[in-house]
Amino acid sequence: MGEQLALYPVRLPEFEGPLDLLLHLIRENRLNIYDIPIAEITRQYLEYLELMKTLDIKLAGEFLVMAATLLHIKSRMLLPRPAPEEDEEDPRMEIVRPLLELIRFQEAAQRLYSRPQWLRDVFPRGMSFEDDNSKPPPVKASLFDLLAALRDLLKRNAPPEVMEVRLARVSVRDKLDQIWKELILKGRLFFKAFVQGADRVEIIATFLALLELARQGRVFLVQNRPLGEIEVLKR
């Protein structure tokens, strides 16, 4: 993908963990958490790890441990079922229990965030405020939401079977400056707008530039609904 991209490692201070990735996959596929198709989830999980490895995103050891756990559960489920009188727990419960715990924590955090807070919910005299409850507030887009958008774009921009080998002339720094200038002018843009008509190398460079802007705290990544289109807002 070009020397300039290969030499641009991504290190994020706030990085979602392997359970967050699993939960993202379950929600993305609209699966029953108590009946996870372990073979398909394992395949998609490893696909995400490979994508992050390609982008040189530094993976914590917990991601590899979870990959090994999923493969172990998959192998156990391929074994013959025990006799009906033997009460053996479903191997998938090994990941279902921590996933349920993560959901409880996320829901508790959301309830705390939605409670009134000093200054956030105080409006000085003279400020116009319209209480519009018809439209839900946007939700923060996670790293995995952004990776999902990148994955879909790369699939739609798959290279032809016969390729012309060219030297990549894309700089992540140039893309970062370009995105920042557009945000200064417009304030907010959809992620897809940054890669309209771009090739695979440009798409990846744009993705890395957005990650860097998010790491620096210069942009918000939000969605109008969970798993919706990602919008980039200037802080």
TrEMBL record:
Participates in chromosomal partition during cell division. May act via the formation of a condensin-like complex containing Smc and ScpB that pull DNA away from mid-cell into both cell halves. GO terms for cellular component: cytoplasm. Its main location: cytoplasm. It comes from the Bacteria. It is found in: Cytoplasm. Pfam families: SMC_ScpA (PF02616). Keywords: Cell cycle, Cell division, Chromosome partition, Cytoplasm. It comes from Thermosulfuriphilus ammonigenes. This is Segregation and condensation protein A. The lineage of its organism: Bacteria, Pseudomonadati, Thermodesulfobacteriota, Thermodesulfobacteria, Thermodesulfobacteriales. The keyword ATP-binding does not apply. Belongs to the ScpA family. The keyword Disulfide bond does not apply. One of its GO terms (biological process) is chromosome segregation. Component of a cohesin-like complex composed of ScpA, ScpB and the Smc homodimer, in which ScpA and ScpB bind to the head domain of Smc. The presence of the three proteins is required for the association of the complex with DNA. InterPro entries: ScpA (IPR003768), ScpA-like_C (IPR023093).
